[in-house]
Amino acid sequence: NAGVTQTPKFQVLKTGQSMTLQCAQDMNHNSMYWYRQDPGMGLRLIYYSASEGTTDKGEVPNGYNVSRLNKREFSLRLESAAPSQTSVYFCASRQGLNYGYTFGSGTRLTVV
Amino acid sequence: RKEVEQDPGPFNVPEGATVAFNCTYSNSASQSFFWYRQDCRKEPKLLMSVYSSGNEDGRFTAQLNRASQYISLLIRDSKLSDSATYLCVVNNNDMRFGAGTRLTVKP
């Protein structure tokens, strides 16, 4: 019953450092998503992958890149971290367009 | 204008009270709708889908008004464990989330 697994759970980066957030789902879902959540802003979509082999930008893609490595895995990369990227990052997946999401437990990222 | 708007609250209600949340959305082509619940420092979890005919799950009732572009969630007989933030979600090709309404149920 793993569902959606995100790693790491917590991370502190210095400005300019890079890192990759990992996400894997074991539900055979087609679509995967990366969101960030900031106080008062709600969840905002960074990138998504509607199916294996495709990726698309969401509302706030600047400063991020993604890779849909296979059907299970969808990673988010910060090439040069900035303090504005301090946030909680959630990965989610779903079977199809009219289905709800299943979320991972989140990554709390602080950029100093 | 935000795509999905909710009253942020907080709503502070006593146990046993009935409380209702509304949510408005701007995209009339939106296809499906959901309510999620998020506990402090946890991930959002699906509470219920919202159907055009309205739907009920125990103490929770969700309704959709496409003409006025709003969604509602009614919680009857509130429990302490209902304390959480409730997120309204509107689906097109991806899901757009409201900022959430915070509910605190007090003894």
Describe the 3D structure.
- The complex is a heterodimer of chains A (about 110) and B (about 110).
- By secondary structure, chain A is an all-beta fold.
- Chain A is built from no helices and 11 strands.
- Chain A has strands spanning about 5, 10-15, 20-25, 30-40, 40-50, 55, 65-70, 75-80, 85-95, 100-105, 105-110.
- Chain A is globular and about 35 Å long.
- The termini of chain A are far apart.
- Chain B is built from no helices and 11 strands.
- Chain B has strands at about 5, 10-15, 20-25, 30-40, 45-50, 55, 60-65, 70-75, 85-90, 95, 100-105.
- In chain B, strands 2, 4, 5, 9, 10 and 11 form a 6-stranded mixed sheet that branches. In chain B, strands 1-3-8-7-6 form a 5-stranded antiparallel sheet, with no helix packed on it.
- In chain B, a hairpin with a 6-residue loop joins strand 4 and strand 5.
- The model of chain B has no long low-confidence stretch (mean pLDDT about 95).
- The interface between A and B is medium-sized, with 21 and 23 residues.
Nutshell version of this structure?
The complex is a heterodimer of chains A (112) and B (107). Chain A has 112 residues and is an all-beta fold.
Supply database-style keywords.
heterodimer, A: 112 residues, mainly beta, four-stranded antiparallel β-sheet, 11 strands, B: 107 residues, six-stranded mixed β-sheet, five-stranded antiparallel β-sheet
Give helix % range of chain B: under 10%
* Oligomeric state of the chains present here: heterodimer
| Greatest contact between two chains | A-B, 21 and 23 residues
The succession of helices and strands of chain B, N to C, reads EEEEEEEEEEE
Number of helices of chain A: 0
Spatial gap, N to C terminus of chain B: 37 Å
Strand content of chain A: over 45%
- Report Rg of chain A: 13 Å
Unreliable sequence segments of chain B: none
Tally the beta strands of chain A.
Answer: 11
Unreliable parts of chain A: none
Q: Which structural class best describes the helix and strand composition of chain A?
A: mainly beta
Order of helices and strands of chain A: EEEEEEEEEEE
Largest sheet of chain B: 6 strands, mixed
Task: Report the portion of residues of chain B in β strands.
Answer: over 45%
Determine the fraction of residues in helical runs of chain A and give it as a percent range.
under 10%
What global shape of chain B is seen? globular
